[in-house]
Automatic annotation (TrEMBL):
Annotated protein name in UniProt: Microsomal glutathione S-transferase 1
InterPro entries in UniProt: MAPEG-like_dom_sf, Membr-assoc_MAPEG, MGST1-like
Localization per record: Endoplasmic reticulum membrane; Mitochondrion outer membrane
Membrane protein topology class: Multi-pass membrane protein
Main location: endoplasmic reticulum
Cited function: Conjugation of reduced glutathione to a wide number of exogenous and endogenous hydrophobic electrophiles.
Key words of the record: Acetylation, Endoplasmic reticulum, Membrane, Mitochondrion, Mitochondrion outer membrane, Transferase, Transmembrane, Transmembrane helix
Length: 150
């Protein structure tokens, strides 16, 4: 089992990429709110009164941004859990750093190409698929490691 201290480069890589992904979640949430404000389209009547807009649940631009946000909320927490467990298996630093970096970069790309639909498929599918496979890889490595030592 790996030594779990903040001086461990594996833990440092995990913390760095986790923090970047958390900031990304905050940013996409802010982007959703900003998009609502700029389009004056809201989901709650009290917001309409305050900001002089309309209640609408199917604005295509807002819904696209919300879907990008929801996709992050479905995928990034799994990375946090599986990545934390993965570093306890003592993987190589180089490979782990590549996995974490690829996951993080692809999630940023995924949001970019989701919110700006002018970039054609399969760009979004690839940016989604690589982190998806990384989560599966880490999860299977964790299960395999801990089954083998039980």
């Amino acid at each position: 089992m790996a030594m779990l201290t903040v001086t461990n480069p594996l833990i440092q890589a995990y913390i760095l990429h986790s923090a970047l992904l958390a900031l990304k979640l905050i940013a996409i949430s802010s982007m959703t709110g900003f998009t609502r404000l700029s389009r004056r389209v809201f989901a709650n009547p009290e917001d309409v009164k305050k900001f002089r807009g309309v209640v609408k649940f199917d604005d295509p631009v807002i819904e696209r941004t919300r879907r990008a946000q929801m996709n992050d909320l479905e995928n990034i927490p799994a990375f946090w859990i599986l990545g934390a467990f993965y570093v306890t298996t003592g993987p190589g630093l180089g490979w782990t750093t590549v996995l974490f970096r690829m996951f993080t970069v692809c999630r940023f790309i995924h949001t970019f190409v989701y919110v700006l639909p002018v970039i054609p498929q399969p760009s979004r599918a690839i940016a989604y698929g690589i982190p998806y496979l990384i989560n599966w890889y880490m999860g299977l490595q964790v299960v395999s490691y801990y089954i083998s030592i039980m």
